[in-house]
Amino acid sequence: MSPKDAVLQAALERSAALVRADRAALERLSHPNFTYVNAGGARLSLEEYLETYVSLGDVRWEQQELEQVQVEVYGEAAVLVARLHDRATHQGRVFDAYFQTTQVYVLFPQGWLCVAAQTTQAPQE
Question: Which of 63, 74, 87, 81 lies closest to 119 in space, CA to CA?
């Protein structure tokens, strides 16, 4: 598998784990010092990310699709940029929205781990 394909696979696994609310898989696919900046501008550590989007139950993902994916590999680092189509329930309210995401991956002995990610509102198409 090429490095680009491996990074894409890791991103798809992260999305699937989010939909399944699989905390263990998200921990396995993320670096312990992972940082996330959400569309509202909040900066979250890995633990805060997992609590907010998996453990608390305020958000239940039905789907997270990656579209228009571009992956660039720079040695043992890679940047993935994609359009996200999220369908979820947040505090009982259904939302269906599009976002842009930038995810940074680094190759470690256990594979490509996400070290940082940021999501912003996607422009209307």
Answer: 81
pLDDT in the model for residue 123: 77
pLDDT at 125: 64
CATH number for region 3-60+71-81+103-118 = 3.10.450.50
Question: Domain coordinates of the chain in residue numbers?
Answer: 3-60+71-81+103-118
Q: String of b and e for 63-95 (b: at least 16 CB within 10 Å)? A: ebebeeeebebeeeebebebbbebebeeeeeee
What share of the chain has pLDDT > 70, as a percent?
A: 98
Which pLDDT does position 95 carry in this prediction? Answer: 86
- State phi, psi for 40 to the nearest 5 degrees: -85, -5
